[in-house]
Amino acid sequence: MFSHRQMLRVRKSAWLVLVLALVFIISKVILPSLVPRGTPPIVGPSPRAADSVGMVFSRSMVDGVPFGEDSVFQSGRDRVHAYSRSPGVNNLSHHWFWGGSLRYTAPCPAVAICVSSLPPDSLSVGDWSVDLVSGTNLVASRQFRILE
Question: Half-sphere exposure of 113 toward its Cβ, with a 13 Å CA cutoff?
Fold first, then answer.
């Protein structure tokens, strides 16, 4: 029915399956128990980063989070989103400047987070800046550039 060589192959594959199963069990059962309980996760923002003021520019927003962060954008092609956070600060707004002149003001309804954007046809070539303002106080300022 089966030759000795065919039986030997079956045995080798059975051993391989057994070894892989043992490695899987060890990785799921024994290794997690070696990590001390209460160990902080490896990924995620640091506590200090969550308390700091930050502003980024991006090409798009995905689920309220900036995606495609950059400081240089193409004229007529890219929509620019400004995303800012300032924990503990309310009454925020973004002030968009081009060449020293105010071009757009966007009040932010959320506390501590401000998101605004300008479409490609509203963005002139050159240097831009966005100020994060709370009432009459400047909280943060950041620059970006539009290229031809």
Answer: 7
The pLDDT score that the predictor gives to residue 75 is: 87
Q: pLDDT tens digit string along 24-49? A: 888 777 766 665 565 555 443 434 44
Output phi, psi for 80, to 5 deg.
Answer: -110, 125
CATH 2.30.38.10 fits 51-147, yes or no: no
- Whether the model clears a pTM of 0.70, i.e. scores above it, the answer is no
Neighbour tally for 74: CB within 10 Å: 13
* Cα–Cα distance, 144 to 78 (Å, whole number): 12
Q: Residue ranges per domain, the chain?
A: 1-38, 51-147
Tell me the percentage of the chain whose pLDDT exceeds 90: 30
Cα–Cα distances (Å) from 55 to 25, 71, 79, 86, in that order, read: 45, 11, 16, 9
